[in-house]
Amino acid sequence: METKIIRINPDCPDSDLIEEAAAYIRQGELVGFPTETVYGLGGDARNNLASHKIYQAKGRPSDNPLIVHIADMESLYEIAEFVPESALALAKFAWPGPLTMIFKKTDKIPLETTGGLDSVAVRMPSHKIALELIKKSGGFIAAPSANTSGRPSPTLASHVYEDLQGKIPCIIDGGKVGIGIESTIVDFTEETPTILRPGFLNSQQIEKVIGLVKVDEGLLEGNEQKPKAPGMKYRHYAPKAELTIIEGDLLEVVYKIRCLTEEGEKAGKKVGIIGSQETIFLYNQGIVKNIGSRRDELTISGQLYQILREFDEEKVDCIYSEAFQTPKMGQAIMNRLLKAAGHRVIKV
Ligand code: TXA
Ligand code: MG
Q1: What is the reported pTM?
Q2: Is residue 222 predicted with pLDDT exceeding 80?
Q3: What value does the CA radius of gyration of the chain take, rounded to a whole number of Å?
Q4: Nearest 5°: phi and psi at 11?
Q5: Mutate to test the pocket of ligand 1, among 36, 70, 81, 100 (most ligand atoms within 8 A of CB)
Q6: Calpha distance 315→269 (Å, rounded)
């Protein structure tokens, strides 16, 4: 299958071009498209065959449910059996935007889309291209991140092309995404709303709006319990090389990474380093990538997956990364980095 790339200006999307992509979705086909978090691989959420195609194209286990993307509040009530007041308040605060909420589902969404569960994950994205694509294609787009299962999520259309060329008919190229890591997921099917995946929207912000919110125990360090979001149990976001995070006082971290890099290179290894604007000039060996300034969280979240992909291409043998416990998005950034590292951490 030939994969067509449609370039669309994200600031003022051309309606005719979006219509061209929407037609594929209405016909049960798949389209890669930008959102404000990461690129999604979209199909009609009401069509079980389209959902089946999504699982196939990604090589994703079919018990891992998809997120249904909507463009208005009426659509929410068509697919969610019950929406509690607190969820409504959170929707008012964060939608359209990088928030996904889970509810009991109605029959409108087939079990194929929800990985066999009787609940459905719903998100109203803020990206102009995504919103218009959803409206033009019938109102309900099921979309996981548009990567091959196990690879970092795509933040550029070229990443989607790398992973899915020949497997899907169309990709919308809307440039680089803004946030770079996936949406925050909050489960409203339990007594106490529960964060199943940290994201741009953090637990303090959510708590301010809805009062008490729990964090899924399966996400916590050293806990045996399985995460409730099936997707969080897989070793996602995995670079091909072994990644280790070095944590502690920043200067000591740099010193440790320098020692490890020297050892690695002596042993004939190709070593990658993830450093920041503030430390980059302190490294004199290894392949060094600058993830951005520690004072600008959005450059860090926006660069993370791209850097992991670059190291894959450059075929490094191991990667050492500084830790990035930034004030607002630190939970989310470290969650993704820890998963990419298979939780390998050295504390100094
Ligand atoms: O930012 C995002 O959310 C992106 C963009 C494209 O919107 N999408 C995304 O989708 O990250 P995906 O499929 O890569 O991640 C969805 C996560 C998975 O961990 C999945 O297991 C979980 O959401 N999930 C979906 N429906 C669920 C449900 N009913 N119950 C529990 N977890 C669910
Ligand atoms: Mg994903």
Answers
A1: 0.96
A2: no
A3: 20
A4: -80, -35
A5: 100
A6: 10
